[in-house]
Amino acid sequence: MEPGEGTEETPLPLALSRFQVSEEYGFLLPDPLTELPAPYGPWMEIAHDLPQLIASHRLRSQVHQMPQLSTGHLRGREELHLAHLVLSFITMGYIWQEGEEGTVKVLPRNLAIPFWEVSQALGLPPILSHADFVLANWRRKNPNGNLDTIISLPGGESLRGFILVTLLVEKAAVPGIKAIVQAVGAILQRDEERLLEALRALAEAIGAMSVALRQMHDYVDPAVFYTVIRIFLSGWKDNPAMPQGLVYEGVSEEPMAFSGGSAAQSTVLHAFDELLGIRHSEESTAFLHRMRSYMPLPHRAFVEAIGRAPSLKQHLLSSGDTRLCTAFNQCVSALAELRSYHITIVTRYISIAAAKAKAGRAEPGDRAGPSVGKPPSALETKGTGGSHIFSFLKSVRDTTREGMIRA
User: Fold this and answer.
1) Model confidence over 150-192: pLDDT tens digits?
2) Coil, strand, or helix at residue 99?
3) Binding site residue list
4) Binding region for heme b
């Protein structure tokens, strides 16, 4: 835009509150509700007993006896998020109760209709996503701040560890999310010192995310993750176990297909990529953009707003400030390292665990909770979101490295 042409297109500084992003918790839902209003007691009762109901193969019969409840009594986004969390966990248990060879083709109307309505109200798909599994699924156990999940599935302590370590990674990202806002503001104001400060804070936050992710090894048993937990995160898109998708009874006569939970649904890395101008391959970009539809609408809008802001990379190249370029490269390097470490985690928890399960050597520890029969095989080489997991992760790691500013 030429000077004097008007100001409608002038980008405004980002403000976290505009996108329902918390200064303290980032993309995590601050202090989520743990109970729904009284009329929704039947949902809560089933949700709180999911591991036992699934282990005893009673969940489906319990769902069939569940009353058809109206979503009209739900008020505010906290109640809607808890309802989505509860209905998504019940749905995953219902679908996968008998393992990948005992799936159903129809989700009954008393579950499908309210789940669809709550999903429409939030702009989320009617399936368990990262927004439910992690962002809205935490509570304080006691005043000391010890954390626990609100709703659970089979997997015992390993499932709890998987959710809470992922939550700690999200929490570690918060200074980086705030640094994005600071960086965009600094570019608009041409404040190089403030920009330098923001980039250093971003690099530090990404490093802290890697440190948090390392705790996965302390709290999650790979055999339990692969043979017990993983199937409940699987969706009905690009999944050979459910090639036709799922009919949501009372919503649509045609089956619908949705991807399972995936780290690619976390808004954090999308936001960092947008700020740093990281460009992934066409195939990876298509998958990542599809995963954005599994994020809460305001968070998706935040990523899009960063994409519309002035280019950080172009600003640095034109400034020629070596301190800024060095700080930028430290951010990119930290992000590539985080993605490399994610590959290490996936290798241990999926690739090696799958090989052991295939060889019949996977024996979940005492803390595993109930198993659902033989280890799943439909997604041996794919992520629960449906991507070809190793080629995707290596591709995004490599294209991240290519985002460095070369001297």
Assistant:
1) 999 999 999 999 999 999 999 999 999 999 999 999 999 999 9
2) coil
3) 342
4) 342
